[in-house]
Amino acid sequence: MKKMSVFLGIGMVVLLFVFCDAALAARVENRQIQQQKRIHQGVRSGELTWGETRMLERQQIRLQRTKRRAFRDGELAPDERVHLERMQDRASHRIYRLKHNDVTR
After folding, report:
1. Taken in order 70, 76, 79, 83, is the CA torsion positive or negative?
2. What is the C-alpha R_g of the chain?
3. pTM of the entire structure?
4. Are the C-beta atoms of 59 and 3 separated by less than 8 Å?
5. What's the pLDDT at 2?
């Protein structure tokens, strides 16, 4: 009986890690989708010029490439998650700054 509860406890911990990893991966993915939407909205509204859009899209491509490399082994390590979130922070700030810089087409 004691062995059964130990195995059950270990199984619960493993499941917790699996679900947490999936939730963190989804957060990274959803954030990038939202950034893409912000860029496209800026293009439609005229807040972003062609050059600004090109710069932001290149940054999104670099972010996507880094994300693909991080998930290559099937999981997102804590240091990889921190690196991706910092890259997304910088991208978000750049999107905001370029959308609000009073440069119009």
Report:
1. positive
2. 19
3. 0.74
4. no
5. 64
pLDDT, average across residues 93-97: 96
CA distance 14 to 88: 28
Which residue type occupies 22? A
Query: How is residue 33 written in tokens?
Result: 């989708």
Q: Which two tokens stand for residue 93?
A: 């700030």
User: Three-state SS across 16-83?
Assistant: HHHHHHHHHHHHHHHHHHHHHHHHHHHHHHCCCCHHHHHHHHHHHHHHHHHHHHHCCCCCCCHHHHHH
Contact 40, 98 (CB under 8 A): no
Which of 66, 82, 68 shows the shortest CA–CA distance to 24?
82
